[in-house]
Design goal:
Blueprint lengths: L3 H26 L7 H6 L3 H17 L1 H4 L13 H6 L16 H7 L12 H12 L24 E4 L2 H12 L4 H7 L20 H16 L3 H7 L4 H7 L9 H15 L6 H16 L4 H13 L2 H4 E4 L12 H4 L2
Antiparallel strand pairs: 1-2
């Protein structure tokens, strides 16, 4: 079915949706708790304070140059909790509660790592061992070079796009689509800053990125069984059953909203606010009004989700010395 007349309108709707999200991104990313960050950390267990004031700066300063999501030497990324627990080519980097079984501790305690760099001090080693023994709590979404000094200042969070490597992995884990070849062809190369590629000051967004994300969103959505994806992430069983039928179902407005809610909550790693859901619903209605069936409606909405700020951006904040941020549950789980 020809849907060309709606494409221009769709582009405007996606742009409007992006503006709405950009305006609320800082509050959402940290659960409206930025101003209370220091108090939250002060009330946290000692192990959480240790991570934010000692371990995060230590990893940023001594490890991320070789083991962030972009460099990932030996297959090891130490910038995110799930990646640390998964480990690299040799196995899990950290086994919570068991320093002696944690490869990170084994390499550091024997001075094998950091490679070709001075070994960690005795105090740094003791902090690392204590943190692992306490269960290796991880209270920040992503570590980056800006945390190396441990002197973070509370304030407005910085927006950074995903690195090319992070984008490829995010698409793979969120949709199951392998997009590496196309992403490396279409996306501008990451610029390194201070030896790192995953910091806000090296990861701005220009027109080239916007255009590339739009093209990649179309490619990704075109390779997906959109109805199956929507069924997998349906918010309730009746909707899941309806989407799992042999023919594309006709969804009423409420069912369509619930369908969009389930898909976007998965792709954006957390709950939506009313404005975000309304923006997606407008995109879907525009396609439906042009005669699109349910699969086409959801495919266009999926494209909007895949190029939205909540999919391609991450938030960073400058923190106060000795401070940290309280991270909402959906971020810790992502």
């Amino acid at each position: 079915m020809a849907l060309r007349p709606v494409l221009r309108w769709l582009a405007l709707a996606v742009a409007a949706l992006a503006l709405v999200q950009a305006g609320t991104a800082g509050r959402r990313a940290w659960g409206d708790e930025t101003s209370a960050a220091t108090d939250a950390v002060a009330a946290a267990p000692e192990s959480a304070r240790r991570f934010e004031t000692e371990i995060a700066p230590l990893l940023a300063r001594r490890c991320l140059e070789c083991h962030d999501a972009a460099a990932k030497q030996g297959g090891l990324d130490l910038s995110q909790r799930d990646a640390v627990l998964a480990g690299g080519e040799s196995g899990p980097a950290v086994v919570p509660g068991r320093p002696e079984e944690s490869l990170l501790w084994q390499y550091v305690s024997s001075d094998q790592m950091p490679k070709d760099r001075p070994p960690l001090s005795g105090e740094e080693k003791r902090s690392l061992a204590a943190w692992i023994a306490e269960g290796a709590p991880w209270t920040l979404e992503v570590l980056d070079a800006g945390m190396a000094s441990g002197r973070w200042r509370g304030g407005d969070p910085w927006v950074r796009r995903l690195t090319v490597a992070e984008y490829i992995e995010t698409v793979r884990s969120a949709t199951g689509v392998e997009i590496e070849r196309d992403a490396r062809r279409l996306l501008p190369r990451d610029v390194r800053a201070d030896g790192f590629t995953n910091t806000a000051y090296s990861l701005g967004v220009d027109l080239g990125h916007v255009e590339a994300y739009a093209k990649l969103a179309r490619l990704i959505a075109g390779r997906m069984d959109v109805l199956a994806f929507a069924a997998e992430h349906a918010v309730d069983e009746p909707l899941r059953q309806k989407l799992s039928g042999t023919a594309a179902p006709r969804l009423d407005d409420e069912e369509l909203r619930r369908c969009l809610l389930g898909m976007a909550s998965w792709l954006w790693r957390g709950p939506l606010d009313d404005q975000e859901l309304a923006g997606l619903f407008r995109v879907a209605l525009a396609v439906r009004d042009e005669g699109g069936d349910t699969a086409e409606v959801l495919r266009f909405a999926l494209e909007a989700m895949l190029q939205a700020p909540r999919f391609v951006y991450r938030m960073e904040g400058d923190q106060a010395e000795g401070g940290g941020r309280s991270v909402p549950g959906h971020v810790l789980a992502s």
